[in-house]
Amino acid sequence: MGLYHFRLPDVGEGVAEAEIVGWHVRPGDVVREDQSLVDVMTDKATVDMTAPVAGRILAIHGDIGEMRAVGSVLVEMEVAGAGNVPADVAVTKSLPVEAAPAPVEVEPNPAAAPAPETVGDAPLAAPATRRRAHDLGIALQLVPGTGPGGRITPDDLDAYIASSAAASAAGNARYAIRETVNDTRIIGMRRQIADKVQEAKRRIPHIAYVEECDLTELEALRVDLNAHRKDGQPRLTLLPFFIRALVKILPDFPRINARFDDDAGVLHEYAGVHVGIATQTPAGLMVPVIRHAEARDIHDIAAELARISSAAREGRATREELSGSTITITSLGPLGGIATTPIINHPEVAIIGPNKLVERPVVQGSFVTVRKMMNLSSSFDHRIVDGYDAALFVQAYRRLLEHPALLFMD
């Protein structure tokens, strides 16, 4: 028998480490070749690591949520044959494998026999206990004390609060005291999101711009195209039109369809339009990418939008499908609200945030009429895009959306 070390492989260009998000084996398990060992995450893509050989698990290395360097040992296995490690190398201690810290159940201290609820002399209690009771509006004379000489301890006060809360809940749950604190460790996708938005806000000075758009004509066109769509054509939402408008306008604003390498001080302006679509998934926010939107018609954009969004929500999106965007659209759809201040998807320099489409009264000449209106939010990297240029871009974008025939004219 031999010893085999399974090391974290290079999971992508430029990736130096990955986060462990789930173990599928424990020490003592016998695994077959290609059986899943561990899931690791890097740059929002989760990778399933499988066993290159069959054998018995001797030790695993890395707790859930821990970052491990490429090349570090993840699993030690006993295998048939010589293995890949000299026989005199000792097995190191395995780390815990729990997916999350197990809750610790603490037995409550048995309460003393209830004392008659009469207010008498000042009870014995430490100043901190008195102060806490005062803050909670509790008369200490009503709290049974189990300490020496009937002294009221912090545990006695907790027991009284719990019993009062239970009684209150039985009578009127609306006003029951709630003291439960749930601790959740931020790991995996949520930690990736937290790190990314924190880095974006730390490095990018944002400038926000909100403009009102009349989308009555665009919405009428969308409804008509859906009513007359051919077999096999996807149903259109507003997003394909927003993407088509970007394709039309970005050649006039090359600095906005760009990625800024601020470490090197280089702005990369792209001819191709690779649109990131902020997508809510069960695991958190992901940004799948529609590549070369400039080469797609409106129905092709809609089909690709549906495909990559489904892949992201179902956890099937690849690293390539989740990277390389040059500008991002983020939309909450019907929940879009009045306005947003979206965070730029670093290292891009702009993000577009459509808000909720609503019917509002609008003055047109001497008349008041009802129109379908939307506030269009946007954010720009102020190091690259001046406020004047941001305004020009949004106004030109608005013109295309308000006159949708322009979207299909050369």
| CA distance, first residue to last residue | 71 Å
Based on helices, strands and strand pairing, what is the structural class? alpha+beta
- Number of strand elements: 18
Order of helices and strands: EEEEEEEEHHHEHHEEEEEHEEEEH
Overall shape: it is: flat
Number of domains: 3
Helix content: 10-25%
How many strands, which pairing sense, and closed or not: the largest β-sheet?
8 strands, mixed
Task: Work out the strand percent.
Answer: 25-35%
Count of helical segments?
A: 7
- Ranges where pLDDT stays below 50 over 5 or more residues in a row are 97-120
- Gyration radius, in Å: 30 Å
What is the compact description of this entry?
With 410 residues, the protein is of the alpha+beta class. The protein is built from seven helices and 18 strands.
What does it look like?
The protein is of the alpha+beta class and 410 residues long. It folds into three domains: 2-79, RNA polymerase II/Efflux pump adaptor protein, barrel-sandwich hybrid domain (OB fold (Dihydrolipoamide Acetyltransferase, E2P), Beta Barrel); 107-177, Dihydrolipoamide Transferase, CATH 4.10.320; 188-408, Chloramphenicol acetyltransferase-like domain (Chloramphenicol Acetyltransferase, 2-Layer Sandwich). The chain is built from seven helices and 18 strands. The protein has helices at residues 127-136, 154-172, 188-203, 216-227, 239-249, 298-313, 387-402, and strands spanning 2-7, 17-23, 30-31, 36-42, 45-50, 55-60, 67-69, 73-79, 206-214, 258-261, 266-269, 275-281, 284-286, 289-290, 327-330, 350-354, 358-364, 367-381. The strands form four sheets. Strands 9, 12, 13, 14, 15, 16, 17 and 18 form an eight-stranded mixed sheet that branches. α5 crosses α6 (298-313) and α5 packs across α7 (387-402). The longest helix is centred in the middle third of the chain and has 19 residues, at 154-172. The termini are far apart. 28% of the residues are buried.
